[in-house]
Design goal:
2 domains; 3 helices; GMP Synthetase, Chain A, domain 3
């Protein structure tokens, strides 16, 4: 039986949320020898190594009990990082005003790659200011969207999106 990424997300996300964290993203590479399950967690005041260790222990316990993944795999838990992927609609809301790099599934306005300021999310579209123009991008046309690290904002005690830890 092959387990899907969505099945794993539904299994581990309640435990992660119950601990006060957000499951920002989940990567699965299973079924080829030793697989990999990588979880990216977040919370308002940032992620520490201890946070990753606690979530890793909790998720490992859930996976040991439910045993949804056949074969061997490694479990990794990490923060989303400074160049975090924007995956959920809430991510696009939270990081409005930040600089982003976006790779599209198809050409939009003669471009497949965009770099600019994330203005807003309106329903299922995202508005990005690129070279003085506003580009409207359907979210389902986004292959990958990432924050561009602003090292001035990343000074100790500050987080992307203006949040202060």
């Amino acid at each position: 039986m092959t387990v899907t990424r969505e099945q794993i997300r539904k299994l581990v996300e309640p435990a992660i949320q119950g601990m006060g964290y957000e499951l920002a993203e989940l990567e699965c590479r299973l079924g080829h020898g030793s697989g990999l399950l990588r979880l990216f967690i977040d919370k308002q005041d940032g992620i520490t190594l201890e946070d990753c260790e606690q979530v890793s222990r909790q998720v490992a316990a859930v996976l040991d009990v439910e045993d949804p993944i056949p074969g061997d795999y490694n479990l990794e838990v990490s923060s989303p990082g400074l160049d975090r992927k924007l995956v959920k609609p809430a991510h696009f809301d939270r990081f409005a005003g930040c600089e982003v790099k976006v790779r599209l599934r198809r050409l939009i306005d003669q471009r497949r790659r965009l770099r600019g300021t994330l203005l807003a999310r309106e329903g299922s579209t995202v508005l990005i200011r690129v070279d003085g123009d506003t580009v409207t991008v359907p979210m389902d046309e986004i292959d990958v969207a990432r924050l561009v690290p602003d090292l001035e904002v990343q000074a100790p005690g500050k987080r992307p999106g203006g949040a202060v830890s």
